[in-house]
Amino acid sequence: MIKKKSYQAGFFAGQNNIGNIVIFGLAITSSAQKNDYNVLINSFVELMDGVAPETLVSDQDVGLISCLEDINSSDGYKINHLFDSWHYLKNIKLKIQ
Question: Which residues does 7 contact at the CB level (< 8 Å), separation at least 6?
């Protein structure tokens, strides 16, 4: 029997110096826990020579929200967190039905 496992995937994208969209990295994790997001964001900051992302867009993941609250307060980053409207509207539709 094969156990199905859920994976979380995300990517870091931004703009280069001439305004083109660039994908900086892709991340896949087997869990959506606060610690996993913490390691992911700190690894990205390290690879980007200490520059933190300005904004993260995601679904309403509790682990990521908690991680960003900790990182913004303890590390002094100012990472904005935006909810992606597709997931937001999908969740509203499910709750209305």
Answer: 28, 29, 30
User: Residue 92: what are its φ and ψ, rounded to 5°?
Assistant: -65, -45
- Specify the pTM: 0.70
Give Dmax over CA atoms of the chain in angstroms.
Answer: 51
Quick one: residue 77, left, alpha or beta (phi over 0 = left, psi -120 to 50 = alpha)?
A: beta
C-alpha span between 84 and 87 (Å, rounded): 6
β-bridge partners, 55: 80
Domain extents for the chain?
33-96
pLDDT one-digit tens code per residue, 39-55: 888 888 898 898 888 88
User: Are the beta carbons of 13 and 23 closer than 8 angstroms?
Assistant: yes
Residues 80/55, Cβ–Cβ less than 8 Å: yes
